[in-house]
């Protein structure tokens, strides 16, 4: 097991990465929260609970109360937050209760948000069960819900008390989701961790085969990179923006394809190819480095083809909520482990790399 | 004009109290936020906007976008937060936008909550237009929305950037609301500010007549008391609990009468009589002091009569969300300006003072 400490201005908590961690959760929570009697609530999906619920629940003296959220973005909405909060009230949850978010990224985002606003905030713990959630969304304190007009437009910064990334739960994850989640680790390597990049470059077969030791290494390194960045810039006023590498175009692709065609990681994969192409065109990266980066992104593919209109992507990119007061920030790479934030990407440049990306994605 | 500084662990901001402040808002905001271009959104009620909107909007270079929330607890719900957030997205609000909550307590609570969770938090300003909101709810950072099962069960701690309590806006406030709001100032005097209590005791006629100078004095003192308490204990883990004097029974009365019969301040008035009676029975207060306190509470009445069942009030008091891990905290008074928190109030004691209160309220 590896333990990574997240330390930000407003919170500090451990991220545990290892195999067979689920069984250790109750004991660790008892240690962390002392003997104070706390009611425990678990937010999970029916599928995860049927696969792993018994393993998690076994060690609790008092069985946790279970709340369910069906899978899919359709349920990542305020009406569900209201329903879940009402169920918690009815079950007697108070300010000393603890919420465990046990599932993928949507469960983590919604569980964190529910904990953030239930009685103005209760503590919570993340147990991510998808690779994407383990390497990315469970760490950093971003929580939220969608609006009809866009993803994650409502939310809070609310850090968990602990994160348990149990590599064993990935055994039941569909292969496509494992592959897609790895793009966030590829991103971690590209923007800041050259050693992680080299490992992903050399051991792609082992990693993609789902080897637990290899995955533990990749997850721990990805989390450590994110923890460091978030520790320096909790609220995304500076450095944290580099985590959006591949996300400006990635988010636009997701929006323009109705969040149905591609998984988030796959859209980020395409978005990283776009950001790399723009880095090449601007001459901020040497071709040799660019070729290495492109080869690794493609090695974790193949990225699924998709079709969309340039205009639709431009509209979606313009509405990217990361843009403050009208400035379009864009993350470029100068080489493996190196990223920069630029603010002067023109509409013409953006349109041109979007057209390039669409041409690549049609093949 | 009086300026009170609120300084907590997580925020510091001014509360301006005075006459004719609305006109000064745009200039003060320009000073506070510098020249950075910020879109301004105003959440208000149709009535407040028709009475005071022009006065507020006059000084803005770019007219603010106005969002409306109809009056009443019915609209203090998550569905309205979702609608308002969607309207903000459609109108182009981003993370650099500023929200002004311009109205009574519900507008303040909902506006603060909307600002807390819109794109994970944007800055906001409170312009309370009821006495209750000016002396109490606009200061301290508590924001929230109701659930069907209870009030303020969903929310955030999110401090405003500034509060403008314009006494002039109270001219259009119904007399009953003025009277009801003053109970929170009476509370402020009882629990911590003996000088404020004496002023309210001696000048009750002047204060109740709506004299602007007298109200300014009362509002400023009430805000200063709350600011001090919140500065010491932002998250209600200790001292802040004294602000709940009169609120355990007060909230129960509101719940048991369906939030229709009494205004919040009136319910708190009854709740303070109940807390005073319990203080007498426990012998923690000298009778002379108790008589003074009772006289002042009654001077700001008459409190409207109501009927309810003891059981209904007991149920409602038991569900009071202020109780952590099953402990029922209760605030008593030891004399003018002095309050204590106790945790050993038995069901029998509570039932007995509730029965006493109901008998008083029937007369």
Explain this structure.
- The structure is a homodimer of 363-residue chains.
- The model of chain A has no long low-confidence stretch (mean pLDDT 94).
- Chain A is an alpha/beta fold and 363 residues long.
- Chain A contains 14 helices and eleven strands.
- A seven-stranded mixed sheet of chain A has the order 1-2-9-6-5-3-4. A two-stranded antiparallel sheet of chain A has the order 7-8.
- The first copy, chain A, has two domains: 2-172, 3-Layer(aba) Sandwich (Rossmann fold), CATH 3.40.50; 175-362, Dehydroquinate synthase-like - alpha domain (Dehydroquinate synthase-like, alpha domain, Up-down Bundle), CATH 1.20.1090.10.
- Chains A, B: It comes from Silvibacterium dinghuense.
- Chains A, B: One of its GO terms (cellular component) is cytoplasm.
- Chains A, B: Its cofactor is Co(2+); Zn(2+); NAD(+).
Quaternary organisation of the protein chains: homodimer
- The succession of helices and strands of chain A, N to C, reads EEHEHEHEHEHEEEHHHHHHHHEEH
Largest sheet of chain A: 7 strands, mixed
What's the CATH superfamily of the largest domain in chain A, by name? Dehydroquinate synthase-like - alpha domain
The dominant shape of chain A is: globular
Domain 3-dehydroquinate synthase N-terminal (chains A, B): 68-179
GO molecular function (chains A, B): 3-dehydroquinate synthase activity; metal ion binding; nucleotide binding
EC number (chains A, B): 4.2.3.4
Pathway (chains A, B): Metabolic intermediate biosynthesis; chorismate biosynthesis; chorismate from D-erythrose 4-phosphate and phosphoenolpyruvate: step 2/7
């Amino acid at each position: 097991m590896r333990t990574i400490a997240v330390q930000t201005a407003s919170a500090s908590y451990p991220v545990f990465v290892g195999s067979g961690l689920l069984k250790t959760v109750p004991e660790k929570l008892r240690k962390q929260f002392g003997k104070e009697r706390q009611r425990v609530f678990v937010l999970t999906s029916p599928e995860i609970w049927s696969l792993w619920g018994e393993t998690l629940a076994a060690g609790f003296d008092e069985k946790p109360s279970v709340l369910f959220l069906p899978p899919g973005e359709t349920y990542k909405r305020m009406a569900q937050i209201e329903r879940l909060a009402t169920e918690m009230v009815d079950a007697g949850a108070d300010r000393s209760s603890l919420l465990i978010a046990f599932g993928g990224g949507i469960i983590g985002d919604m569980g964190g948000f529910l904990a953030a606003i239930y009685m103005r905030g209760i503590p919570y713990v993340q147990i991510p069960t998808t690779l994407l959630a383990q390497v990315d969304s469970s760490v950093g304190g971003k929580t939220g819900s969608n609006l009809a007009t866009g993803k994650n437009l409502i939310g809070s910064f609310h850090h968990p008390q602990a994160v348990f990334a149990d590599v064993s739960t990935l055994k039941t994850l569909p292969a496509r989701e494992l592959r897609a989640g790895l793009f966030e680790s590829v991103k971690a390597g590209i923007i800041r961790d050259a050693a992680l990049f080299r490992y992903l470059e050399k051991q792609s077969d082992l990693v993609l085969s789902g080897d637990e030791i290899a995955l533990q290494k990749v997850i721990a390194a990805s989390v450590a990179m994110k923890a460091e960045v978030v520790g320096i810039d909790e609220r995304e006023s500076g450095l944290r923006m580099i985590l959006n590498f591949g996300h400006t175009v990635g988010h636009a692709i997701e929006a323009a394809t109705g969040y149905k065609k591609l998984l988030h990681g796959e859209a980020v994969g395409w978005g990283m190819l776009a950001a790399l192409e723009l880095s090449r065109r601007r001459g901020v990266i040497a071709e040799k480095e660019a070729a290495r980066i492109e080869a690794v992104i493609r090695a974790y593919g193949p990225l699924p083809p998709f079709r969309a209109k340039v205009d639709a992507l431009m509209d979606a990119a313009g509405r990217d909520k990361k843009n403050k007061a009208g400035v379009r920030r864009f993350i470029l790479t100068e080489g493996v482990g190196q990223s920069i934030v630029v603010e002067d990407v023109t509409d013409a440049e953006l349109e041109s790399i979007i057209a390039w990306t669409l041409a690549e994605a049609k093949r």
